[in-house]
TrEMBL record, chains A, B:
Residues 4-185 form the Prephenate dehydratase domain. It comes from Corynebacterium stationis. GO terms for cellular component: cytoplasm. The record marks T178 as: Essential for prephenate dehydratase activity. GO terms for molecular function: prephenate dehydratase activity. The keyword Ion transport does not apply. This is Prephenate dehydratase. Keywords: Amino-acid biosynthesis, Aromatic amino acid biosynthesis, Lyase, Phenylalanine biosynthesis. Residues 199-274 form the ACT domain.
């Protein structure tokens, strides 16, 4: 079955590489690519039915949360994560055919990527001026159009845009990893594997200790909280949406009990998904009918 | 006494406006401005003694934490926050003298600012191409040099760079606010006012429930946790520095007791400061000797 997948384009971005990885793993098949300009646009395409899935970066081991992705989860109808993939992120420095590092006076890349190659640039082309781009693929494209001398982008972008690679595996922090997720409309979660991740988002009543006492619902039941991310609600300065990742699947008894307690104690609770953790090969995405999870899951998903 | 203050330059940025506000409030006097390119460089200037203070943005009501500032707190010796100021953030759209909106094909601003004016731009100049800049002041400067047609920047930047303002008070979310802090080397905290904010950063042992049980140290004692921010340690994917803001001063008994408990239960605890909350006029910064806080405060400040 053909799946249309929205992703941060153009071709040659790391997000496209993640999409290829999802296809290889069988999470989606016969992919029609729909390049867009931001995670928000990718989610909008899914919400409006123009795409079946969105493939977006969610976290980087150096730069942290991709905040535009987190915000996109709460700016419209509920969406759900079905799979994740971790990619090691290293950059190629690319130029128009025939040029050398001495010819590089300007270099373009995504601002997040810039944070990851700045040390290398300072050491090797200290006088080159940084020009921010909306994506690494767009940076490579700008080189091909002669708008900038060089780009830091995935090596594949050099092939796509016919550029020369002057340096490879450039990364100030070796082993820097970015996590990507495959996001669709709410449906049956990917099957429990025993090594899963569950994510929810909620707001809390503004009272001393409310967040701490809510988090106890996990520690009581020995459910490991893997991360917590706060994002402004944009309604009142100092109020936040809390995104929490938990170890386990919504069909694991202690976790589902803790979420039931959260449903009673938090505001605007949304289920973001249960899916296999990236450090094992995930099973093929199953799109058959939701048959095991209980009715309250639906309530959690819709929030209150 | 002259104070050298490092800030995100050039002149005409919101950070410069915050610095002027700090000077007006008496937090610093006889300021020598040291414009730099990032919060990290501003902190480095303080650590190396080239500046007495750094003035940096830390949080925005629309875009959330200024992550580069949070990361800069842990990338070198401990630094301390002494004051904060909240500025309402609205933008002026500025061009070279004599031009009109019809002449605008490219518009530059800082990527965070772009998120806050995108709606207005789409409505008023839908075909103008966004060009990211390292600061709003730099965007205005680029207009004056003819490198770009328009900039979204604080109105003051138009005066500084001799530009025409075509629209004012532009902000997709009305009342958007940015919080700025004044940061120096560790010293005696600003005096207790009864409406203070205290901030710490730490890592936690990797065990289920460790963060939740640590946060109980606050709820036990009825200390309100105002926010929590997680940033990657950059050592291992999935390990975080947790930044926590608390209501109260380190000289408030319940808060200081909770921090003492944290010192025993967390790793790499650092005291980031106690200072007056922005919704009251803060007292003048006192730089006399530390006389009241107890010796363990020093230990907390240095981490373990």
């Amino acid at each position: 079955m053909t799946s249309t997948v929205a992703f941060l384009g153009p071709a040659g971005t790391f997000t496209e590489a993640a999409l290829v990885a999802f296809e290889k793993a069988g999470a989606v098949s016969d992919v029609q690519q729909l390049p867009v300009n931001s995670p928000s646009e990718a989610f909008q395409a899914v919400r409006e039915g123009r795409a079946d899935f969105a493939c977006v970066a969610i976290e980087n081991s150096v730069d942290g949360a991709v905040t535009t992705t987190f915000d996109a989860f709460t700016e419209g109808d509920a969406l759900q994560v079905y799979q994740e993939v971790d990619l090691e992120v290293a950059f190629a420095i690319m130029v128009k055919k025939g040029l050398s590092l001495d010819d590089v006076h300007t270099i373009a890349t995504h601002p997040v990527a810039y944070q990851q190659v700045r040390g290398w640039l300072t050491e090797n082309i200290p006088d080159a001026k940084f020009q921010p781009a909306s994506s690494n693929g767009a940076a490579a494209e700008a080189v091909s159009r002669g708008e900038v001398d060089a780009a830091a982008a995935p090596e594949r972008a050099a092939e796509i845009f016919g550029l020369d690679v002057l340096a490879n595996s450039v990364a100030d922090v070796k082993g820097a990893t970015t996590r990507f997720v495959l996001v669709g409309k709410p449906g049956r979660p990917t099957e429990r594997t025993g090594n899963d991740r569950t994510s929810v988002v909620f707001t809390v009543p503004h009272e001393p200790g409310s967040l701490a006492s809510i988090l106890q619902e996990f520690s009581y039941r020995n459910v490991d909280m893997l991360r917590i991310e706060s994002r402004p609600t944009r309604k009142k300065f100092g109020t936040y949406n809390f995104f929490i990742d938990l170890a386990g699947h919504i069909e694991d008894e202690p976790l589902s009990e803790a979420l039931r307690a959260l449903w009673l104690r938090t505001e605007n609770l949304r289920f973001i998904g249960s899916w296999p953790a990236a450090d094992q090969s995930g099973p093929k995405l199953d799109t058959t009918e939701f048959d095991k999870a209980t009715a309250w899951v639906e309530k959690v998903r819709e929030g209150r």
